[in-house]
Amino acid sequence: MNRKISILIVIVLYSCNLFAQDAKEIIKKADEKWQGMSNYMEMKMTIVRPEYKREITFKSWSKDRDYSITLITSPAREKGQSFLKRKNDMWTWNPNISRYIKLPTAMMSQGWMGSDFTNDDVLKESSVVTDYTHKLIGSEILDGIDCYIIEMTPTEEAAIVWEKVKKWISKDAYDQLKSEYYDEDDELVKSDRGYDIKIMDDRTIPTRIEILPADKPGNKTIVNILKIKYNIKVKDSFFSQQNMKRLK
What we know:
Layout: H1 2-35, E1 38-48, E2 53-63, E3 67-74, E4 82-86, E5 89-94, E6 99-102, H2 119-123, E7 132-142, E8 145-154, E9 164-170, E10 176-182, E11 188-200, E12 203-213, E13 220-230, H3 241-246
Antiparallel strand pairs: 1-2, 1-13, 2-3, 3-4, 4-5, 5-6, 7-8, 8-9, 9-10, 10-11, 11-12, 12-13
């Protein structure tokens, strides 16, 4: 009897480890597909509020998780403003006041440019692969696409505002089609959905992302990917404070 129980425990533990490894591998494949080793993107962001709607266009360059730089190209009053992440340092350049401002980690959860898109979404401070533990909790058909559902909880070392994140990843193509973000009271704070899967450069990805805050009816942010190039050749030196002012 004891031997049977021991064998059963081994099987259960092995299965748990296998599912944990599978969940992390799924998230890793989805993240690598979305990010590449490096990329260049052109995007349009539409901020929708009950009282108004406004659009912002911007360009971004990124390399691994250590480097990213984003340049606003419109509207005119915000044109030229840029954001930089270089390893653990994050900065913004505002041409209207000719100043660099260092961004603390505590600001990563705040809305970027008044949107539901966060500073972390833009600067990629946190990593869905290394800053979370992962658990495969089920599957669901989403808009006709069979998806894994993966629950992610931050590691003790990670400085992340979310207490829990759920992601829906397509089984056939590892596309990130839905995410839900929860606070310490297990209340849903916001969600996002990916739509309009198209061929962009050398892969298919969702090209429209809608972000919905849970407690603000009528509010949403829509991000459209207009252009993307993967695995571009870009040096670490490109991601510098000096270049924040030179980008066009």
